[in-house]
Amino acid sequence: MIRSSAAMILSRSISIKQKIRVMIVATSGVALLLACAAFVWAALLGFQKEVEHGLATLADLVSYSAEAPLDFDKPEEAKEVINYLRASRDIVAGGLYRLTNVHLDKEGKVIAALIPGDLSWTNYWTNVVFAEYIRPGATVSIPPQPPGQRFNAKTLEFVKAIPRSEDPTKTLGLVYLRFDHQTVRAFLWKCVGTVGLILVLASILSWLFADRFQRVITEPILQLLRTAKTVSEEKNYTVRAARVGHDELGLLVDGFNEMLEQIQSREQQLQKHRAQLEEQVAARTAELTQANRDLVGAKEKAEEAWRAADEASRAKSNFLSFMSHELRTPLTAINGFSEMLITEVEEEGRTEWADDLRRIHESGKYLLELINDILDISKIEAGKMEVHAETFDLAALIQETADTIRPLTQKRKNQLVVEGLADLG
Fold first, then answer.
1. Sign (positive/negative) of CA torsion 16, 17, 23, 24?
2. What is the C-alpha separation between 252 and 407, in angstroms, rounded?
3. At what angle do helices 16-71 and 181-234 cross, to 10 degrees?
4. Which of 391, 421, 404, 326 is nearest to 365 (CA)?
5. How far is Cα 183 from Cα 58, in angstroms, rounded to an integer?
6. Could you tell me which residues come within 8 angstroms of residue 50 by beta carbon, excluding any fewer than 6 positions away?
7. CA 35 from centroid of its chain's CA atoms
8. Residue 143: phi, psi to the nearest 5?
9. Which helix (H) or strand (E) holds 297?
10. Cβ-based neighbours of 242, under 8 Å, separated by 6 or more
């Protein structure tokens, strides 16, 4: 996570020129590194084959010279033979082993004559190490028993059987050779140095080529960037970027120019709409000004109407006060005198007068109730009227209504008849 974050920050902070250079050099370096690794591996395998071939040749020479000392049991001569290895700077140790009762198969492998099926070297020794050579200053030693492989690539040890000349199926002994690891290391370091030098030179050349080739990609992009900066600073949408090719960068330039054309067209339309909007705003402002004037006039008219309503309200209040005082007082007196006259007439037995006086009394009472109703309506409008549910005599109400309108019917020679009052209860 830390490496990826660092790489992401680095990729954002460096320029596109450096990115292209780094990508070209990195790609070339990785490919060259893989090729060098394959080269080193192939060189090591080839060097290993050469070492094996050289040890096999040297073992053939030693085995040919050591046949007589081994056959006639002469350790001193065998010592002189094995000391021939001093002529080779790459041999760090060598030895001769003397064997008995050992035969070779068709492939040249050692087989046992005494213990069939058991191929371990320990079953065939009489004298383990017959002669040995160790290079002066070396810290290695001859193994008491020779390795069982012909060539060991890890330890660089080589073992070869020494057959008898008269009978190749019989083995006199073994020759043991050990190659110097320092020679392998020196060869490996030589390869690494060569590879490192190649990588350094290739990186320098890749960087130089990348510096030249990146311009093919970066120059159109930088030119496009300069055009975009000019458009952004000067707000000049008539500027166009020059196309340099027919590849993806050319398509990018075409897309950028097309975008500028669209922006220029929209800018012109925006200016046109702005002018229209200013005209509309001026017209709406004039309309609002006129509407404001009309509103002021309506307000003045409303104030006048309010003053008129206030005067009407005061007139109404005066009228109601007049009705309450100037009308209710005489009606109350009329009702009182009519009741007195009805009582006196009934006492005198003049029934025809009593009915007329009773009608007068009922009409006055009705008129007084009408005035009270008008006053109650005024209270209702003022929100001061309290409504109470009461019971009343329906028959009496109908009779009073009939008595009130009967003079009008008689005046026009009509007859008002009320029936069924007794059934109302």
1. positive
2. 108
3. 170
4. 404
5. 17
6. none
7. 40
8. -65, 140
9. helix 248-322
10. 223, 253
Q: What average pLDDT does the chain have?
A: 75
- Cα angle 210, 24, 226; round to 5: 60
SS3 for 138? coil
Does residue 111 register a pLDDT over 70? no
pLDDT at 202 over 50: yes
Is residue 162 pLDDT above 50, yes or no?
A: yes
Output 341 or 277, whichever has higher pLDDT.
277
Q: Are 113 and 87 in contact (CB under 8 A)?
A: no
226-269 confidence digits (pLDDT tens): 777 777 777 776 777 776 666 666 777 777 777 877 777 887 78
Q: To 5 degrees, how large is the angle CA 45–CA 49–CA 53?
A: 170
Instruction: Please report, as a single letter, which amino acid is at residue 349.
Output: G
Nearest by Cα to 242 from 261, 223, 225, 214: 223
Tell me what pLDDT residue 127 has. 44
For the chain, how are helix, strand and coil distributed in percent, rounded to 5? 70, 10, 20
Residue carrying structure tokens 């009408």: 370
Q: Structure pTM?
A: 0.45
Query: How, if at all, do strands 110-112 and 91-99 pair?
Result: unpaired
